[in-house]
Write a structure and sequence with these properties.
Elements: H1 3-12, E1 37-38, E2 52-53, H2 59-79, H3 87-105, H4 118-126, H5 132-145, H6 148-156, H7 165-174, H8 178-187, H9 193-204, H10 214-233, H11 237-241, H12 249-269, H13 274-284, H14 290-297, H15 302-321, H16 331-335, H17 346-366, H18 371-412
Antiparallel strand pairs: 1-2
Amino acid sequence: MSLLEVITKASVEKNRPEAALKYPIILNPEAVIFELKPQDLDAKDDLPVKRATGWKVSERDTEIIELGQSFFKKLKRKLKNPNTFNQDEFLKILGSYLVSIARKLGTADNNTESDKGYVGKLVGKSGLFMGRDVKGLVLEACVYLECWEVLESLMVNGLVEHSHFSSLISNLIEKNRADLIVLCVKHLSDLQANDVMCILKYFLSLPKDGHDSILSVRKEWESQALLAIQRLKECDGQSLLAIEKVKDKHLRKKLTLVRDASLLLMIAYDGFSGTDLCLHYLISSRNYDEVILGACISNLDGSEMMRFVRYLGKWLKKYDSFPDVCLCPEASSVLGLTACDWVPRLEDIIICLGLLLDEHFSTLVLHPEFHEELKSLNEIVNSLAGEARSCGKLSNLTQTLRGNTKIHQILQT
């Protein structure tokens, strides 16, 4: 068997662990590092490294590992009989396991099982101490039993192992959970080309029974838009209309940020459908490069290409109509407008359009249904290009004048 065949076989094997790992967590060396002693102090040898004795796993780590092994065996046994295993029972045993970890760590609190999102909160506090094998099995149970709140907590807290990315995304697509797929884009780093392609094609050809899960995505954007309006109301209206006249430097900076962030969210929300809002996350993501994006776009069919062209066209029209709009990286931390981090740049739109033309040029040219869309895009691109040339000339003139001013100041001194 060649090396390529070995790698291919390993990559397609099911990721479900067959047995609990012996040391599934990162061990804490602090408790034993000072107890190590070199072996055979009296031995006369010239070896620069001496064997040490006294190493042992700390008592707390041992107890946490034993808890994980016991829970792993119990959950695996339950999953072998899924017809008799339900969501309530899973949440009960998972919650009990995580509470036991919290007690070992001394981080247990007064939350009760009646609290909303009780197990999800426990995952956030104690999930880091779940072994890789346990996390894989919990992930499998969450998908099978549709415990979406726990699954969301696993993703948000970075507890989904990279080896499970592809299977998780394919399962969520099968179950039409567009809202959770958005979370995959936001929180799963280093997505592979096939994962990005599956997500792109899913958002461009969403089945009818998948639209219900998009409502939460739209509501999230709506809440961000309402928060932006609230931030505007908190500011003085006269100051917003004449920001350049505000003398206080910090106030002027905040007013500018509020204005720019509100405008950015307005263009990102108005006129876009629910699936478009999902695409915002994928197109603005920095988890992949142009090579991966090009490979994904090359696999689009005719209907998907048409939807993608129209989506990109909406963005070009927005940026053409609002040339002053700019990204606001500080809006998330300062104003709480986290959606500003997921608004595609004009550069992102141009890159996608260029890749689409490169990969499907003959299809776009030979099929007349694309012609009107492309003509419209061409007019907008020419308008943006003309504006860019004008801005470039003004920028060059400004730099020249600044240079002349500096030279004049040097000559005067």
